[in-house]
Amino acid sequence: MDATAPVRSRFKPAQLNSAVAVDLVGVHKWYGDFHVLRDIELRVGKGERIVICGPSGSGKSTMIRCINRLEEHQRGRIVVDGVELTNDVKKIDEVRRDVGMVFQHFNLFPHLTVLENLTLAPIWVRKMPKADAEEIATHYLRRVKIPEQAAKYPGQLSGGQQQRVAIARALCMSPKIMLFDEPTSALDPEMVKEVLDTMVELAQDGMTMLVVTHEMGFARQVANRIVFMDEGQIVEVNAPEPFFNNPQHERTKLFLSQILH
Amino acid sequence: MSDIATITDTRLAFVRTKPFDPLPPPIVNSGAIGWLRQNLFSSALNILLTAFCVLMIAWLGPPLVKFLIIDAVWDGASRADCIATPQRPEVGACWAFVIERLGFFTYGFYPADQRWRVDVFFVLLAFGIGWITWLDAPRRDLGMIYFFIVVPLLSFFLLVGLPVLGLPYVSTAQWGGILVTIVVAWVGIVVSLPFGVLLALGRRSRMPVVRMASVIFIEFVRGVPLITVLFMASVMLPLFVPEHLTPDKLLRALIGVALFASAYMAEVVRAGLQAIPKGQYEAAMAVGLSYWQAMRLIVLPQALKITIPNIVNTYIGLFKDTTLVFIVGIFDFLKTIEAARGDVNWAAPTTSITGYAFAAMFYFVFCYAMSRYARYVEHRLRAGDRR
Amino acid sequence: MSVTDTAKPKTAPGPALIYNPRVRGFVYQALLLAAIAFLFWEAASNAFENLARAKIASGFGFWHNTAGFDISQHLIDYSTTSTYGRAFWVGLLNTLVVAVLGIVFATVLGFIIGIARLSTNWLVARLAAVYVEVIRNLPLLLQLLFWYNAVLKVLPEMRDSLLLPGGGFLNNRGLFLPQPVFKEGVGLVLAALAVAVVVSVAYHFFAKRRQVQTGQQSPVLRVTLALVFGLPLLALLLTGFPVDFLYPEKGRFNIRGGMEVLPEFMALLFGLVIYTAAFIAEVVRAGIMAVPKGQAEAAYSLGLRPGPTLRLVVIPQAMRVIVPPLTSQYLNLTKNSSLAVAIGYPDLVQIFAGTVLNQTGQAVEVVVITMGVYLTISLVTSMLMNLYNRRVALTER
User: Fold this and answer.
1) Contacts of residue B225 in chain C, CB cutoff 8 Å?
2) CB A73 within 8 A of CB A35
């Protein structure tokens, strides 16, 4: 750890411009006639860690995918670090550069080595010299504790290792906000912990995070607030302590009773 | 200084008091307008493409309909009816020609008083096809025997003749048209499946001689055009057999088509065999089945079932390829069209196009039906997997 | 009963021999070999007998005999006094010309239609699907006959030729185009083109190195296009257009001068391109659909624009899926070009397995040579394919 200390200081997380990281105001979305997001109101402050939970099909993933415009919303406003998402391609680029995303199925590029996966965006988006991009990549690989896998292809790694590479890949762009879409759902149980540990470390460094997950232990440990969604609506928002110990809404109580024994 | 507590004030904690009922989507995203906007006019490029497509349809569609239907000639007895006159300057397709020569297109030179035999053959065949393609039909095993053994034997005597039963001989030189196309395709279908299975098993055999023989045959046939195989069958084969045994022209072409189809079928079956997990072979051996028992009872039924869509697709290729026999002088359906369109009695400017349009419809109906069937089976197999 | 079996010594000789799988395997193989040998021997002896009776020569001596027939399209010198061997090369070249041009055009059309089938524009996708369904389900031979007999042969007669913009003629005897004749100074233009290519390649390497070192990206495509088109154009201007066109001149019964493209060639090329493009479109569509949507989403979420996402993430993965079946479509096109025989385009099969076979009667030799050519093309291609597959195979655990 000591050896990495001087390096680490060079890679401070980028700072948000605005005190509000993400602001969702009256957001609605439809798939065809199906109303998937209904009247979403959520304001995420700088440095906040939000955990989003709820039954499957409740719109959790759709909501966070709207934040970097992998999905388009049809009504309402989404403002990310002071930039409102519209059809303006420049704005979308700006937001995507500053928002990192980790997917349920990793989505590593199978035709590139781990190192190439990590340096792709810094080289082509941040226009970095290759050597610098590789230095950053090596730094983050060390941070997710798999520097020795740099030359391998994603297919040669275990699921847990792949997901840690995916996190490192997002971090290489020095994002101001990180989105996690069920990052541990596709993993074997023994690999969940290594990924969660990485995420906890990230939280301790003060990263603004929105995490869709069913890992309630993680939620208790790192979340500032927990958002519970059902049928496309935010049903309840609260800090972990009251959320788990004293849920208000009937739907929340039912959900918690099913998922906690 | 604003910190989290102040900026998120009222929304820090939130409980929904009354549910937000689903709303209909905004008008620009739903209904006909939304559909048009999303599917045809979503961007400048798409508007341009849509305009281009509409122009193309407008340019091609109406003339086609006009030619094939509105201006078409439906009845007539000779070319005179299909030639433009001052009273009727626009003449479309000459369907009268097709209608008049339909017998020729169907039976070739098969004697008119014996054509009922061909009709019976078509019915026998259609019944067999219906039986084995209907996946929920009763006794499909009997259907297979009927299709692969009974119909071939019956139709051989039916079409060639059996004077004992009052069916005079009809030389294959008199066969023609759809009859020949169906016979060639059907012989290819019936022969290629068993031979293809044997070749596929041979290619996966542990015996080097068997494997080499299969590989050489398959790769050789697949590496050359069908037309050269047909040339080989029609000009080389007569050299290789004693003079008195020389097979007739149609039989030679049938041999060529059957060899060709078998090699392609072998590769399709091999892919199916490869998809069967090793555990199935091991389990079959473990319960004490011999090689042939294991293949017949365990492996092949599974492999062939998942291969049905690909087998049908191979049959589509085979059906289209039957047209090539025309090059070695067989009077298949396409050849009858070629012959008829050159007939002076019907020589009008639109005769050729009408003939080709008719041929196109014939081939399209058969091939498209087969490809729909392949897709249907694929769909059902996938649904079965989910269960 | 297995107990008694195992109780016996394992090496028991004698009656068990026919139950020994290795012995059985050996016997089966020997029988198969014997059967094949018998077939070949029988065929060969019959062939000798039949050939001797028909007084047909055997061997490849005819190769050097005078062919005595004319060929309507020849890329190398050929006349009625040329040999059968020469005719073979003429036919092979004609096959290769139509195959190469067919492959180029079919690839372009196939990729366009394959991508169109995946378009978000409903009309574009539907039209592309209709094209694929209709063309794939009609025999190629029918399509060739249609193009030749129903389209090209009903073009106007020679004296009513359609005048094409730029000084060409189109009639039922073919397409007649101006032929470029190069004068002095054309060397400079060619040199300019060569320089442009070399400089473009150098610029490509320079741009790559610059990106590695400084991260700066260069407009490689734009510079390359500017060089490849700009430099030769400049040279043309400087030398005062050293190219003359020999325009076809229309006489009463024929057209003299210029380049002649046979209607048979056009029909074959049209038919092959349109038919094969439908299959290539399906290959391309399957290849693109084989790349999971998550790949593009991951690239977008890293801030990559749609252009680089396609170039760096989607296309490299799709090509792995596309290339093998694409190659087999190229082979199919090459083999299908043999249907030339039906419309009289002088390809290898038409000249060799057609005319030469009829004249010499040496069926065995002629068919063997013809098949040998196609077999060689197929085997070499599949060998290259195997090499490619081994190179690009994804590394998995």
Assistant:
1) 335-336, 338, 349, 374
2) no
With CA atoms as reference, the chain B residue closest to A40 would be B20
User: Which stretch of A11-15, A83-87, A222-226, B239-243 has the lowest confidence by average pLDDT?
Assistant: A11-15
Side-chain-side CA neighbours of C373 within 13 Å: the count stands at 22
Q: Per-residue pLDDT tens for B309-358?
A: 889 999 999 999 999 998 888 889 999 998 888 888 888 888 888 899 99
| Beta carbons of B280 and B260 less than 8 angstroms apart | no
Cα C70 to Cα B84, C74, C83: the distances in Å are: 39, 10, 11
Q: Which residues lie across from C243 on neighbouring strands?
A: C182
**Which partners does chain B have (≥3 C-beta pairs < 8 Å)?**
A, C
Each residue of C137-146: pLDDT tens digit?
999 999 999 9
Check if B113 contacts A (Cβ < 8 Å): no
Going from N- to C-terminal start, the domains of chain B cover: 1-69, 105-386
Region A88-97: mean pLDDT is 91
The closest CB to that of C375, out of B224, B241, B363, belongs to B224
**Does A151 contact chain C (CB < 8 Å)?**
no
> What are residue B161's phi and psi, to 5 degrees?
120, 155
Taking an 8 Å cut-off on Cβ atoms, the answer to whether B320 and C140 are in contact is yes
Cβ separation C142–B219 shorter than 8 A: no
Contact flag C295-A130 (C-beta cutoff 8 Å)? no
At A16 the pLDDT is: 82
Q: Which of residues 248-287 of B touch C (CB under 8 A)?
A: none
Pick from B280-289, C116-125, C168-177: least confident: C168-177
pLDDT digits (tens, 9 = 90+) for B200-237: 999 988 888 999 999 999 999 999 999 999 988 888 88
Q: Which sign, positive or negative, has the C-alpha torsion A103, A109, A110, A113?
A: negative
| C-alpha distances out from residue C198 to B47, C194, C204, C227, C380, Å | 40, 6, 10, 10, 30
* Residue type, position C43, single letter: A
The whole-angstrom distance between C214's CA and the closest CA on chain A is: 4
Q: Check residue A26 and give its pLDDT.
A: 92
Out of C215, C217, C394, the one facing A155 most closely (by C-beta) is C394
Under a CB-based contact definition with an 8 Å cutoff, are residues B150 and B81 in contact? no
C144–chain B nearest CA distance, Å: 11
A98 touches chain B (CB under 8 A): no
Query: Is B16 in contact with A249 (Cβ distance < 8 A)?
Result: yes
Q: Which CATH architecture has domain B105-386?
A: Orthogonal Bundle (1.10)
Distance of alpha carbon C346 from alpha carbon C340, whole angstroms: 7
The dihedrals phi and psi of C163, each to the nearest 5 degrees, come to -90, 125
B53 touches C: beta carbon within 8 Å: yes
User: Can you give the pLDDT at residue B308?
Assistant: 87
Q: Helix (H, G, I), strand (E, B), or coil: what is residue B71?
A: coil
- What pLDDT sits at residue A1? 38
- Where are the strands (E) in C81-178, listed by range? 162-164, 168-171, 174-177
C162 and C169 Cβ atoms separated by less than 8 Å = yes
**Amino acid type, C166:** G
Q: How does pLDDT run across B18-68, given as a tens digit for each residue?
A: 888 888 888 776 677 777 877 788 788 888 999 999 999 999 999 888 888
Residue B13 sits at the chain A interface (C-beta within 8 Å): yes
pLDDT at A5 over 70: no
Q: Retrieve residue C90's tokens.
A: 């003429």
Any C CB within 8 A of B124 CB: no
Which chain A residue is nearest to residue C292, measuring alpha carbons?
Answer: A107
Are C139 and B223 in contact (CB < 8 Å)?
Answer: no
Residue A119 with chain C: CB contacts under 8 Å: none
Distance CA A63, CA A52 (A): 10
pLDDT, one tens digit per residue, over C298-351 is 999 999 998 899 999 999 999 988 988 999 999 999 999 999 999 989 999 999
